[in-house]
Amino acid sequence: MKRFWKRVSVIAAPDGHAIALDDRPVRTPGRLPLVLPGHALAEAVADEWRGVTDTIDPRAMPLTGLANVAIERIAADPLPFVANLAAYAESDLLCYRAEAPAALVARQAAAWDPLLDWARRRYDVHIEVVAGIRHRAQPDLTLARLTEAVASRTAFELAGLSPLVTITGSLIAALALIEGAADAETVWQAAQIDEAWQVEQWGDDDLAIATRAAHRADFDAGVRLLALLVET
Asked: In terms of Cα–Cα distance, which of 118, 85, 113 is closest to 97?
């Protein structure tokens, strides 16, 4: 879609703040009102629309995309979305360690053990850790409490949490980030340990670099959405 508007504004809506293009409220692709829960987030989304030059590029509007997900895919029926994110607890990245070499094992432990220790304390659960790729089931109570932690989030928080979980492969690391127990860079670097090790051993390539940059952009968008939700 080409740009047809001259002015973008944030206007009051019954349940928050809406985006208007030349005083016409924006709707999601499914034709639902694009209403944001906070003014800071609404202004950030409005800035994405202001930044459109000629044609809309969805990759340049990640906050708008996440807002669409929250409104269309999550708000009406959050349980399936919660279940999909909570399922990552069954095979969390942090729980599957390399058997060798010793340097990689140590690197994983240094980055991942503090996050697991936080989760054990925070949710009062036992978390199984295994060396190798053979699946080891987590206790039912652990899965239940981690699922509860996800289910307690709002639709917009779940939208922001989603790229953190799916890109890192770790529900625990994502929960640590959203609860302020770890910062974004710590979580990102922890999730990149295996890939960084492979790059050190074998070198990098253009496709891997581009893929990593795209993943980082999506990760950062989720982090920013969550940060904007707590601003006024």
From this structure: 113
